[in-house]
Amino acid sequence: MSLTKRQREILTYLANYSEEHGYAPSFEEIATQFNYNSLATVHEHLTNLERKNYIKRAYNESRGIEVMPSDILPRAMSLPQLGTVRPVSQSRRSGSPNRSECRRTWSGAAATTTSCASAATR
Questions:
Q1: Closest by CA position to 35, among listed 13, 57, 4, 65
Q2: Do 18 and 52 reside in the same domain of the chain?
Q3: Are 64 and 57 a contacting pair, CB within 8 Å?
């Protein structure tokens, strides 16, 4: 579904604000940004963005707006899961000192870092 010019502006504002602050703006902050006198106007725009699947809102939660991945905002992306990493049991870890052990850590919203070290050096 296509967006109106104002909906695109609000979506961009939501994404930029969330990226900068780490949380979504309040209805009041959105109203101030776009010079709206009524929060009902903000609610209407957010409802339309949610209906078009550009945002997801957590009801009864302050600042509960999440910008969804879309063609409009290419920096928001959904990554497929390529596989799983099975845990190594304690008995197998101590029984094979030449075996490598890898740990996956999350840094940021979408990036993963995998670090591997020989079990003998631990």
A1: 13
A2: yes
A3: yes
Nearest to 3 by CA among 24, 75, 13, 120: 13
Unique residue bearing structure tokens 């050096």:
121
- Contact by Cβ (8 Å): 104, 98: no
Q: Is residue 81 part of a domain?
A: no
Measured in degrees and rounded to the nearest 5, phi and psi for residue 107 equal: -130, 115
pLDDT in tens, 55-92: 999 888 888 899 887 777 765 445 566 677 777 766 55
Cα 100 from Cα 122, distance rounded (Å): 10
Residue with tokens 């008995």: 91
The count of domains in the chain is 2
- Tokens coding 57: 């809102």
Least confident of 9-13, 33-37, 89-93, 95-99: 95-99
* Distance of alpha carbon 75 from alpha carbon 26, whole angstroms: 22
